[in-house]
Structure to design on (366 residues):
């Protein structure tokens, strides 16, 4: 495979999957707004357990694979870009593309979003706090991607790509799931779920993210999983279902206190690690196979959403918080506000990203 030949062609299935994932992430943040599960810039929590419990399951299961799948898709595109541009130009291009959005959110946008969501203190106070906490909001993903990309470049400088592709073995996925499970448990002994690190880098989620980024790179270099065999897709789906049910079961068994699930030398933390390994790998392979098989085409709206997906991810925090604040005066229950705010936040994030991408000078960053 000559990965250096020509620009990287767009794949409709990746655009479609990316758009669906971004919409899912935005919906998850709106769930956090109204169910108070996880961390977010604005809270208006419901007390209705019939809403809170499904919201908690959505957020918990989604966190087991969604961000890792973003990294897998990035990994699929990385080897060819590196082969075409060379190490220096590749890193320079990644830094120029991802650096400005990250810095803008870190220094300006996210402190303003937190002020908009929490109020009670001056905007200047939030900017001062931001200099201590260095929280880029959802754009931690951008910095992590830069770090992973630099690591991959260094690895390929030391060990160039093999001239002959490595043969595919299903056991690779089993080993990857087991490795993610073990590494997740080990990392969370020191960095529990939702713990704070510099730039809020979600180190507690890195085993999933690094593992799936590496899987994407390996698939691109060796021609794996394009297409995903039907039998493997079914097996991956069953593994994902088993992992998700494992997460749901351990949540139900620990409803009084979820702290043991977050990390430490506890059996719930170990079970969560196993569930995360199964869900991360199984869901990713199943979704890649599903979208390759059934959604590798796109009409005008789908193409626009695919191209706007990264921008929608970048813009989701100010859009979702602004819409939730606008909905605050409505004299209805929080769970009903969710039904209004979630689709409005998804549409607003994608729409604003599409508009800003048409502004000269912004297209490269949005």
């Amino acid at each position: 495979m000559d990965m250096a030949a020509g620009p990287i062609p767009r794949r409709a299935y990746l655009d479609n999957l990316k758009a669906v994932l971004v919409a899912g992430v935005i919906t998850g943040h709106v769930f956090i707004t109204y169910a108070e599960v996880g961390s977010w810039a604005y809270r208006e929590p419901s007390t209705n357990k019939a809403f809170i419990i499904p919201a908690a399951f959505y957020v918990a299961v989604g966190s087991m694979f969604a961000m890792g799948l973003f990294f897998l898709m990035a990994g699929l595109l990385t080897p060819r870009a590196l082969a075409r541009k060379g190490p220096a130009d590749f890193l320079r291009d990644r830094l120029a593309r991802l650096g400005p959005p990250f810095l803008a959110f870190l220094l300006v946008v996210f402190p303003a979003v937190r002020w908009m969501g929490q109020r009670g203190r001056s905007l200047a106070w939030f900017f001062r706090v931001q200099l201590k906490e260095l929280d880029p909001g959802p754009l931690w993903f951008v910095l992590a991607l830069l770090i992973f990309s630099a690591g991959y470049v260094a690895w390929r400088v030391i060990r160039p790509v093999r001239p002959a592709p490595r043969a595919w073995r299903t056991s690779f996925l089993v080993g990857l799931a087991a490795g993610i499970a073990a590494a997740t448990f080990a990392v969370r002994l020191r960095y529990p779920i939702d713990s704070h690190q510099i730039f809020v880098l979600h180190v507690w989620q890195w085993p999933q993210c690094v593992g799936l980024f590496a899987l994407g790179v390996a698939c691109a270099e060796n021609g794996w999983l394009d297409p995903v065999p039907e039998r493997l897709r079914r097996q991956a789906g069953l593994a994902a279902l088993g992992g998700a049910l494992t997460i749901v079961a351990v949540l139900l068994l620990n409803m009084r206190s979820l702290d043991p699930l977050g990390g430490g030398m506890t059996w719930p933390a170990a079970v969560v690690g196993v569930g995360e390994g199964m869900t991360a790998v199984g869901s990713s392979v199943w979704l890649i196979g599903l979208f390759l098989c059934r959604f590798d085409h796109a009409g005008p709206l789908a193409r626009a959403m695919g191209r706007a997906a990264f921008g929608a991810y970048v813009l989701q925090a100010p859009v979702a918080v602004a819409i939730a604040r606008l909905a605050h005066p409505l004299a209805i229950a929080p769970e009903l506000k969710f039904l209004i705010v979630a689709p409005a936040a998804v549409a607003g994030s994608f729409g604003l990203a599409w508009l800003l991408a048409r502004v000269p000078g912004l297209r490269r960053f949005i």
About this structure: The mean pLDDT is 93. The chain has one domain: 12-356. The chain is about 70% helix and 0% strand.
